[in-house]
């Protein structure tokens, strides 16, 4: 995404999210300690309700190998939480994604569990979903200091149509992204 520029200047962005229970979580939290690594990535830790409860209880929690489902070791939740805060203060990353809360509000739970967000965190995403955002300048929807609802309605309809066309016209780098 360093090659992809918006308006010829702004670099593209990626989002990296790792579950707080992953055995590599400490290395992930420290990944942007040096300013020259992962420069096109925003990173966040997917924190769970159980982890946050362990923080409140000043307890340990389990790091689980995602391939085997087996606990590798237990570590202090408050120390991990403090490290997240320290690194966020130093570099702006990692952020946190309240993954259990997001999934409680997942509009399509039968399709799958949400695992990440887009790079700015506004849009929760299922595995292999891509983010396609648009915006509307509400100041342009005013008429005589009142909101012109008809103009807004038409602008929203045109905007959604445009974004649908972007999905249809896109060439996806991976067939799993195209399928989703």
List the helices and strands and how they pair.
Elements: E1 5-6, E2 10-11, E3 14-19, H1 25-29, E4 41-47, H2 49-56, E5 60-64, E6 71-76, H3 77-91, E7 95-98, H4 99-104, E8 116-117, E9 124-125, E10 142-143, E11 146-147, H5 149-169, H6 175-179
Shape: elongated
The number of helices is: 6
The biggest beta sheet reads:
3 strands, parallel
Name the poorly predicted regions.
none
Q: Could you spell the SSE succession in H and E letters? A: EEEHEHEEHEHEEEEHH
Question: Structural class of the secondary elements?
Answer: alpha/beta
Calculate the terminal CA-CA distance, rounded to whole Å.
21 Å
Radius of gyration: 20 Å
Overall pLDDT, averaged?
Answer: 91
Strand coverage percent: 15-25%
- Strand segment count: 11
What is the share of helical residues? 25-40%
How do the strands of the widest beta sheet line up side by side?
A: 3-4-7
Task: Describe it.
By secondary structure, the chain is of the alpha/beta class. The protein is built from six helices and eleven strands. It is elongated and about 60 Å long. It starts with a strand and ends with a helix.
């Amino acid at each position: 995404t360093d090659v992809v520029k918006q308006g010829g200047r702004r670099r593209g962005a990626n989002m990296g999210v790792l579950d707080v229970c992953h055995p590599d979580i400490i290395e992930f939290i420290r990944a942007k300690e040096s300013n020259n690594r992962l420069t096109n990535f925003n990173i966040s830790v997917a924190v769970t309700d159980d982890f946050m409860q362990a923080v409140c209880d000043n307890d340990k929690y389990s790091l689980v190998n995602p391939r085997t489902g087996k606990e590798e070791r237990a570590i202090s939740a408050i120390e991990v939480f403090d490290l997240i805060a320290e690194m966020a203060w130093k570099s702006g990353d990692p952020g946190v994604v309240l993954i259990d809360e997001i999934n409680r509000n997942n509009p399509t739970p039968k399709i799958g569990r949400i695992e990440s967000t887009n790079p700015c965190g506004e849009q929760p995403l299922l595995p292999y979903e891509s983010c396609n955002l648009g915006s509307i300048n509400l100041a342009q929807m005013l008429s005589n200091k009142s909101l012109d609802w008809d103009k807004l309605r038409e602008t929203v309809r045109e905007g959604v149509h445009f974004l649908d066309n972007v999905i249809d016209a896109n060439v996806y780098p991976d067939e799993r992204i195209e399928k989703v």
